[in-house]
Amino acid sequence: MKDTSSKNRLWIAIVAGAVGIFLIIIAPLLVQLSLERVITELLEVVKDRPQFTSGFALFSLFYPVWRALGFVAGIALLVITPAIYKGEEWTFPVALTAFSVAAVGGMFMFLPYISWVGGFPLPMVISWVGLLGFWAIIFLRKSERVEKWALFFSLTFIGMLSTHAFTLGIGAQRMLMTRPERPLYSGLEMWILTWVGEVNWICVVLLMLSIPLLAMRKKSGWYLALIAAIAILVIDAPTQIIRTKTLDYLWGSLLAIGVLFFINLPAFKQALIGERPNGKEEQTPIEEEAGVDQVVPAT
């Protein structure tokens, strides 16, 4: 960020501040309106399809959770806006993380909304705003062109996979909560749901952690994304074979393959975590701020 022009830093700071204000003031209202509309429609749906009654508890819990996460992300963006304008390197991974919370949370809330309410999807606005900040800081920050595109594709797919994995976890819980044979399990189709949902939720945590770490050029971030994508692929692919009534697990598998492709593409991997042409590994923002010198092994 320190090498980014003052004009671009100003634009990044303006975007960060605007997104922060949006997440603090406007997004909470959009979330509440969306939740009210989803619950209202579900009241009619469950009259004929009682298996969807679990939606009341799940959406009433997780819509506010994502609203709270977005609120804190908005506060974070406002707090770090002056440091962004000053070009302090540590603000890059922090801002990316805050933007990703809005993008992922909004996309998750969009899916139930479009399924039950229809019309213009209010939560999608939250996701669009998060993506605007996410992509703006990647392309306005000074870096090599290949690094910009590596971050764009890798982190965007990581965000998409995070959203889908979180939604799959919700879907698994929904079906388990309303299974007719409860508290027993009727066979393999229900057994797999006690496994796939939790695996996907764990991987959401790993994927979200990988975003700031990859922004800091940490190999740990690359490995977290790798582990999460492989785990999702290994659990979703057989689940799709067992549960053929939906293609949701196929989409999860394809998104995981997308993440694996982009983070392992040689040029992208080099740009994300490889050594620089001068033979030194890129210092992380925290190391640069602390003035820590990289040690290059003797050859």
Explain what the structure shows.
The structure is a single chain. The protein is mainly alpha-helical. The protein is built from 11 helices and no strands. The longest helix is centred in the first third of the chain and has 40 residues, at about 5-45.
User: Assembly type of the shown chains?
Assistant: single chain
Please provide the count of β strands.
Answer: 0
| Helix share bin | over 70%
The share of residues in extended strands comes to under 5%
Summarize the helix and strand pattern as letters: HHHHHHHHHHH
The main sheet comes to: none
Derived from helix and strand composition plus strand pairing, the structural class reads mainly alpha
Any key phrases for this structure?
mainly alpha; disordered C terminus; 11 helices; single chain; 299 residues
Write the layout of secondary structure elements.
Elements: H1 6-45, H2 54-86, H3 91-116, H4 122-140, H5 145-177, H6 188-191, H7 193-215, H8 219-242, H9 248-264, H10 266-273, H11 285-290
